[in-house]
Amino acid sequence: MQIAVSFFGADVGKSEVVVADHGRAKPVTQILKNTPASLSKWLQTLPQGSVLAMESTGGYERMLADLAYERGLKVYVLNPKALHHYAKSLGQRGKTDRLDAIMIARFIASEHERLHPYQPSAQHIERLRKILRLRKMAVVTRTQLRLSSERHHQVHAQAQVQKVLDALTELANSLEDQMLAEIQAEPALAQDFKLLTSIVGVGNLTATALVTTFARIPFTGSDAVVAYAGLDPRPKESGAYKGMRKLSKQGDAILRSLAYNAATAAARSITFKPMYQALLAKGWATTQALNIIARKLLRIAFGVWKSRKPFDQELFLAKQACVKP
């Protein structure tokens, strides 16, 4: 006898969680405090084998996801962008916590079979991801402040602005040092890091993003890695019409940015420069050529990590020499 599966959606906020039960004729919602006691008490009322989904909200969802996973539920942490478009497709006429919880429950009930369930990451992996995100914020803030200062020519505030820029630079460097220390403290992670930094163009930051990604997600192949980074070209075709393909950008924005930076560095090396120049000669724009190399680097990174063998530059050059122009 097959047991009916119950589907629940949760809209998670900093202090409250609104949950919805999809298994009723009329969706039932309730409000919970976002505390271990309140969430655990509610989870104990759910039938065994229930499915719970929530939107990724910058970390506020982590407590509920971990508690539900520990209880044996199948948990999904969903991409906010996908949920936004799904809500629009339903013609949802408003946006409230209750409506979002109902929409999430409906989404997971219909789409759960094609999605990957949530699995908790090790604490040191989560620490590295948080440090990586914080460093990106420091670098982005520094760049925005510098450009704004140059644009507005605030001479009288130049000294103060420079102090803030220096402080942000110091923070970014300190966070990078902290990441490297965290990696070296974990032998298995340190070995992965060493393998990935053997790839031309892949520096400390890109390798950190890659090791934390590979540690968290069981990719089935290099295509999945490229798609996760949002570097996969999105087709735009209808009948005889074939439009220009653009990147899907439906993945990890930090990994995508770092892969592009790695491609920029690799394109200046003797290893990848011939490939870069060949792409330009074929008519690809600079950004397009670098995105192609970024995809190549991600595929190489997955192969290196999977095979446990460092990048072989001579073998790569030999294979490139055999490629038809």
Automatic annotation (TrEMBL):
One of its GO terms (biological process) is DNA transposition. It comes from the Bacteria. This is Uncharacterized protein. Residues 194-268 form the Transposase IS116/IS110/IS902 C-terminal domain. PANTHER family: PUTATIVE TRANSPOSASE FOR IS117-RELATED, TRANSPOSASE FOR INSERTION SEQUENCE ELEMENT IS1111A. InterPro entries: Transp_IS110-like_N (IPR002525), Transpos_IS110 (IPR047650), Transposase_20 (IPR003346). Residues 9-145 form the Transposase IS110-like N-terminal domain. GO terms for molecular function: DNA binding; transposase activity.
